[in-house]
């Protein structure tokens, strides 16, 4: 079938196929390039209130989007970017779409980035944000969600300290979970479109240079921690496709309630693409249905 034509057109407009691999640019330039706002980007539907709040006990902040009326659930969104790129501010357009699609308040944590702050600094920041939300929102449901490296961090935070704060669900969009990059999709030329396996290797080296990153390598978890309901979304043309499937199978074998769907015709990052393709809205709607009991109370 090939890549979804709408997604292919967005990637062409962005010049994705002609862009040099990020690892050839170095960290500083890669951050500059990845943070550029291009013409035609959709700012997303503004929430009722958009605030910046401090994360207690840290020097971190969260971008908080509140919707009216106050919903039963709060989503802690953990952005992707290989643990090296991205920010809460850059995630604002998607966070707005997420809040509208899931009818939930959304908090985006500005976690510390590698290589300046390698493993497990980002997990510590996500955990602190999660605790802050739990303290500030007693009685409300909490969902940890993220994409790519952000999905890894969401999973790691809950797995490392499952009793530290309440988590009612985890939603992982195309999670990065295997530093060995051993899955067949990493060797598939058709999967190198947005995130080449060489770039993923660079990210892992910057994030976990010593190779000892147990909580960020879920395929090694033994035993599997008692995670809440977990939803895994993967994309057909993504180097992370097969490790995402392996993650779902590993968690399920360990007793976790897991739903997994691989979206045909899609590439790495399709859910957060801007402008958003129809497939992104469909994936957000599907994932919301899988955790409807949490989002709606």
From TrEMBL:
Gene Ontology MF term list: hydrolase activity
InterPro entries: AB_hydrolase_3, AB_hydrolase_fold, GDXG_lipolytic_enzyme, Lipase_GDXG_HIS_AS, Lipase_GDXG_put_SER_AS
Active-site residues, as the UniProt record annotates them: 148
Residues covered by the Alpha/beta hydrolase fold-3 domain: 75-271
Keywords, comma-separated and alphabetical: Hydrolase
Keyword Hydrolase: yes
One Pfam family named in its UniProt record: Abhydrolase_3
Protein family membership: Belongs to the 'GDXG' lipolytic enzyme family.
Protein's name according to its UniProt entry: Acetyl esterase
Native organism: Pseudonocardia thermophila
